[in-house]
Structures are given as structure tokens and as C-alpha cells.
Amino acid sequence: MTNPLPPEVSLSALGPRTRIGAGGQGTVYALAEDPRWVYKEYATRLVDDVDVTTLNRFVRLAAGAGPDADALLGLAAWPTAVVRKEGVVRGFLMPRVPERFHVRIQLPRGPDTVLAQVQYLLNNDDYLRDRGLHIDNRMRLELLRDTSEALTLLHRLGVCVGDLSPNNLLFSLDARPRCYFIDCDAMRLDGDSVLAQAETPEWHVPDADAEELATPATDAFKFGLLAVRLFAGDQQTRDPDAARRRLDRQLVLLAGRSLDPAPDRRPAPQQWLDVLDRSIRRTPPTPPGTPPAGREPPRQEPSRPSPVRRIVPRPGAVARPRPAGRGWGLLVAAAVAAIVPLVGLINANGDPSGTYPRTGQNLPTGYPWNSDRPLDYPGLPTRIPGLVLPTDALGRTPGYPTYPDLASRLPLIRACLLNDVTVGRGLNAASARTKAAVSAVDSFLCALWNKAVSLDDRSRTQTARVATLAGKGPFHAATIIGIRTAASGSPQVNVVFEPVGDGPSSGCWRSRLSLVKDDDGYHVGSLSAPVRASCP
């Protein structure tokens, strides 16, 4: 290879190379003869899909003279030469990631030097301390400012990042923290893409079906998401208030505007610069080992403000208000309020004498709630001390049906009355796709509570996943934190399930539900393995 680098090179001219990484689109190799560059070779299945004309335009942008081209190569692993094999474009050359964008961290398998992906920073203080990463609020602000400046330059050059996520963005913790973009061939140049646009799960725009991908507006949204998660120490939150403990009020407001479902309402990254500069000047560095300002005492789960969530009812249904607490009292009160009138209706229609015809006996006060007989309402307690059902004017207990008959006559009372499906902030609650997802998740939650889940995929793996998720409950609520369109074209919904009380296992659980459409609408066809998650 010669210097300067030609716009096109032959694969055979690269010389010996060593595989250093792989991803969904291809494999990256280091070049023994010129360590400044690395070679990304597209997977065989993608070679025919590469837009060669657009890839060549990427290369020409980096080859242009002037400060913008130099700045571009300083902030991104940008394509600098097309690589052909027997005339067919197989990949491209790009700069090797500078050493300052690697970090030495303590991993579970031991210490290691890895790419300094921003995903490491989107965690709580305990995680950062365990990994040996010292990052304070001043560093966060400076990193955010450098990213804002980099996005401003890219947009001026006609480049939109598109898949802006913590996997594709690196950090350095030098005297002034810097950012560095990788996977740049996934970006969009003047509206054109080398390959079809994709989004990292949990980093998608609110309504990918309605909003064009890889635009300045989508970059603005994901930059706001980055700001929130960087300061909240949370990989999944979409609630700006989650960052309020560390982030200035003006920046929280900017983040909230950036996460607006309406693309034209989002501020450009450039609009953050002055506010970030002022916040940096007011934020002194924190010496290593000093707890961040405002940090609360360590807990098993990091505390976060509860987000304001929008409730989207099922079509034809009325949204139910969520209980203020997670204890049994409010849940049971809601159940009793729904059950008692229906029980009375059965008595009035079936047994005016005050006795139940199948048993011929009056039941003790408070039956079945203070009976020792087990209930068939999963998750509800067998006894509720002090709860007494009403008596008539003469002090007699009305005849209530025995529990087995109550269960058989009122199958719809089963805990589905207590279900609550909400939509996380940043999602378009009014879109048809979101409403369909709410309906599908609500049905799934009801079936999960009643242990009657029926999936299209009835494999042993899926059966085990359903059993695992059901065993973490019972769940009375679920929050949709993300919706994306899978390669098949069907929606995939990221859901956090919230247990009643503390449940058998404390904390919430997350799974990705793949939806399938039939004549009755969408329903859950399969799900990913449940993992522990922070409660919304």
C-alpha cells in the first residue's frame, strides 16, 4: 500500500491481516503492513446489497481538502478507500480507532482493555466503581458537549448518524473528554445509505413506521436519549426526570423537548452547546473516590424518580387508574369493589331467600376473604385481616355463593380487572401501532396472570420462557418501553413487567414480545428470555 491512500484498492494489496472484531454486517481486520488502517469486509449475504455509488461518495467526503475533512477523520472511523476483490466491492478501509478511545476496565472475567463504548457509562455509580471507571458530572457534560459539536459538524456535511447508540459511540477520558463514532458506513449521506437503515434495540425513535430514519430529527431524539441515560445511569429510561438529580434544569428541559414524538419540535444538537457550556463552567471536577453530589445512600436497586406515564386504554375500554402503592391493601380494595356488586347480583337473581341453593347455608361474615379455603385468584392473599363483608338490616350475613361457584360464575373477575398497561415516555401513544401493542400486551398480561398463555411458537424453549416469566409474578402492570419493526415486518415490543407487591422475586422483569397479526388483530407469538430490569 502507498501513501496517500488511493480511493480504491485491491484486497490482495492489503497484505497479511488479523481478525480483530465482528458484527452483524461483517468482520474487521487489522493490517500488518500499515497499522493506521483496518479493513471491514462485508458478510457474503450483504455484498450484493451494498450501494457502491454511495460508499464511493463516503470515501470522497473524507478525501476532501480542508478543516472539515480533517475534523471528520478525527471524530469518526470514516470509510477512506473502497476494497475490491476481482472487481467486486467486498468492503472498505477506515482509520484504526485511536488508543485513547480504549479503556482498561475490570470485567467479571478479569481486567481487560476494550473499546471505550459509551454503553459502559450508562450505568449506576456502583457499576462504574466496580469497573474501575471514574467519571463525574463534569466529564459527562464535556463528553455530551463534544458529541453535540460532532453531530453539528456531521449535519453540516450532510451526514446523519441514524443508528446513534452507545455501541457505535466511543469515549475518551482525557483532559477534555471526547467522542468517536464507529460503524460509520451505517450513516446516511445526503439522504443515501450504503445499506438499509437499522436501529439498535432500545434506541429507536418513537414511531419508526411513521418517521423517516437517519434524519437530523432522529439524531436529535437519540442525542436527547443519550443525555438522559448518561446522567440517569440507566440503559433503558426515556424519562428526562430520571436525570434531574444530576442534570441542570435547562438541560432536563432540552432533553424533554428532544424526546418529543413530533420530529419538528426537537432541538438540534447545536442548540445544546451554550447551555452545556454554562453548565460546565458551574460544575467543578470531582476528585476520584468522592461520591457524586446528590448521591443517595447505596441501595440494592438504584432509586429513581417515578416517570410520568401515559396510560393508553384498549380500544373500547376505559383506562384504569394505577394504585398509588404496591401493597396488597389497594389491590384487594379494587378487587372487592368489583367483586362484591357482582356477587350481590348473583344472589338477587339466584336466591332471594338469602341462602345459596347449591349449599343451602349462609356463609360466615367475610367469606371467602377470611376463610381458610384457598382462593383461585393468583397473587391475592387467602386472608385479609379485618375485612368484613356487609350484613343486612337485622345484622345477618347475606348468603354468598361458595367460592367454587363464585369462581365458575365469574371467570372474568379473575385478576384481569387489575391489569394496567402503560406507555413509556418518548413513544407515540396515539399511533395505531402503539395502541395495537397495548392491546396485545394487555391480553398477554391477563393470560400470564391466569396461567393461560398460548403462543404461536409452542417450542420447548418458548414454553420454558413463559413459565420463567410467570414464576416471577404475579404481575399486575406492564410498561411498554420500546416498539420496533423486526426484519419480518412485525412489531417487537420491549415490556417491563411489574409484580404485585414484591412478588416471589423482588424487582421488575423485561422481555421482548414478538407480535403476530391474525383476523382479530395483534397477539404475542413469542418472547425473549426474561431478564431483571429496573422498575419504571
From TrEMBL:
Ranges for region Disordered: 275-319
Composition-biased stretches (Pro residues): 284-295
SUPFAM superfamilies xref list: Protein kinase-like (PK-like) (SSF56112)
Any one GO molecular function term: protein kinase activity
Top-rank lineage group of the source organism: Bacteria
Bias type Low complexity, positions: 306-319
Protein name per UniProt: Protein kinase domain-containing protein
